[in-house]
Amino acid sequence: MKDVFARLGSDLFSAILFLVIYLVTDNVILATSVAVAGAIAQVIYARIKGQQLNYMTYASLALVVGLGAITLLTNDPRFMMAKPSIAHFAIGAIMLKRGWMLRYMPPIVVETVPEYVTAAGYAWAALMFVIGVGMIVVASTGDLKLWAFYLTVVAGGAKILAFAVQYVVLRLIVTSRRRAAARA
């Protein structure tokens, strides 16, 4: 489990860096600048160390640099409210890659139920698209409090709930299959 969080942390390093700096300083320009610099530094560091970066890391880098550049150029609050939907759509599109989720699963799950992990990956992609559409709908109201509630409680809560359901379902299926294999 620790390995999964380390991989996620590496893949989402620049996005996490943006969020932390923004929450501490409430300065979008500073947070964006630091996140872009952090993303570029992460790639350079990995290249120097000879480490391989996967597509999620590159996608996060592209999102942070691309959306960060637009943020720095426009400094528009409407774009700021819509920007998370763009990120959700992009991440959802990346999650449509068959088997993307396998690298985050323990070996026992990968060996026992890879088809369910693939299905869960597609379910995550669908969730990202639904959250993105909801984000646009909420951002179009112009209500900053509603938008903040949706971003933190609804979108965050949906992801936590999806993770919990996925964990329980995969655990039950793996346990069931292993018991059936032991009886056979």
TrEMBL record:
> Does this UniProt record's set of keywords contain Cell membrane?
yes
The name this protein goes by in its record: Intracellular septation protein A
Which superkingdom is the protein from? Bacteria
Residue stretches spanning the membrane:
12-41, 53-73, 79-96, 116-141, 147-170
Among InterPro entries, the record links this protein to: YciB
Q: Coiled-coil ranges per the record? A: none
Q: Which Pfam families match?
A: IspA
Give yes or no: UniProt keyword rRNA processing.
no
Per the record, its GO cellular-component terms are: plasma membrane
**PANTHER family attached to this UniProt entry:** INNER MEMBRANE-SPANNING PROTEIN YCIB (PTHR36917:SF1), INTRACELLULAR SEPTATION PROTEIN A-RELATED (PTHR36917)
User: Which keywords are on file for this protein?
Assistant: Cell membrane, Membrane, Transmembrane, Transmembrane helix
